[in-house]
Amino acid sequence: xxxxxxxxxxxxxxxxxxxxxxxxxxxxxxxxxxxxxxxxxxxxxxxxxxxxxxxxxxxxxxxxxxxxxxxxxxxxxxxxxxxxxxxxxxxxxxxxxxxxxxxxxxxxxxxxxxxxxxxxxxxxxxxxxxxxxxxxxxxxxxxxxxxxxxxxxxxxxxxxxxxxxxxxxxxxxxxxxxxxxxxxxxxxxxxxxxxxxxxxxxxxxxxxxxxxxxxxxxxxxxxxxxxxxxxxxxxxxxxxxxxxxxxxxxxxxxxxxxxxxxxxxxxxxxxxxxxxxxxxxxxxxxxxxxxxxxxxxxxxxxxxxxxxxxxxxxxxxxxxxxxxxxxxxxxxxxxxxxxxxxxxxxxxxxxxxxxxxxxxxxxxxxxxxxxxxxx
Length: 375
Prior knowledge:
Layout: H1 3-12, H2 14-29, H3 42-60, H4 63-72, H5 78-96, H6 98-115, H7 122-136, H8 145-154, H9 158-181, H10 198-222, H11 228-242, H12 252-269, H13 272-282, H14 286-297, H15 299-307, H16 313-322, H17 332-344, H18 349-374
Helix pairs in contact: 1-2, 2-12, 3-8, 3-10, 3-11, 5-6, 5-7, 5-9, 6-7, 6-17, 7-9, 7-17, 7-18, 8-15, 8-16, 9-16, 9-18, 10-11, 14-15, 14-16, 15-16
C-alpha cells in the first residue's frame, strides 16, 4: 500500500487502527499464550455478524425506503414531515441499529426536502435524526453494538436492562418532540404524494421471510433461549442460498475492532498493577467515566474497555449510551450523518459541526442530570 492509501485507511478505520495498536503493544507485556483464546466474547461477535448481514438483507430489498415513503404520504405539513423522519430514525434504530438507520434515512431526508424546496431545514433535521438514532437505539439489546456486548457479557436480565435505559429513552422522546414542536409549521405541496409503491410491498414479503426468521432466531440468542453457534451456522447457510453478496456488506473492521479490544483488555487484566489502578479509577464513577471516555474514543470501545473493570453493568450501560451524545466521535454513527451532509453541502461543514455540538451538549447535559438523579 502507498503512504496515501495508508493515510486514507487510517482516516476511514481510525478506531480499528488504534485498537490494533493497543492490542499489539499489550502483547509485548503479556506474551501470547492459550489464555488469549478465552479473551473474546464469541457470542457477541457471532450476534453482531448475524445482525449486520440480516439488516443488509433488509436494505437490499428496499424495506426501509418503502416504509419511509409509506409514512411520508400521511405527512401534510413540514412539522409532521419532520416528526415522521426523526422518529423513523428513533424507532427503527431499536431494531436495525443507529448506524443503519442513519445510512437509510439521512440521504432520504436530503432527497425529500430538496424535492419540496426546503433545503434550509435539512441541517437541523439531520442533527435531530442523528440524536434520535443514537438515543432510540439504546432502548433494545440489539439497538447498537455496545448494548449487544454489555447485555451479552453482564448476565443482566431484560428487566434490569429496561430500567437502565428506558427512562432516558422516554426523556429523549419528549425532548425531541419538544424541539420539533417549536419549529414553524407550514403546509406541504403535492410533491410528497409522488412517493410510495404499494405493489412493491406486496411483492417483497416472500423475499423478506428468510430474513425475518433469521432475525427472530437472533433475538432468541440475545434472550439466552438459543445457543449462538447453531444460529450463526444457520444464518451463514441461508445467506449463501439467498444472496451471498450480502457477505460483502458486513463491517468486518468493526468485528476486528472488538477482537483487538478483547485482546488489549484481557492483557491489561493480567497485569496486576494496571488492573488494580483501572478498577479503582472506574469503581463508583461508572456514569461519568463512561460518558467522558466515550467523548474521546467513542462509546463502543468505551463499553468494551470499562466493562473489564467494573461489575456495575447497568450504570455503565446508561453511561455509554448517553456518552454517544457530545462530540462528533462520541458515537461513530454520528460520523455517518456528517459524511452524508458534508458531501451534499460541502460549504456548510462548519455550520453542521456548530449546530451538532450545541444540540448534542444540550441533550447530554439534560440526560446526564437525569441520570445523576435517578442513579
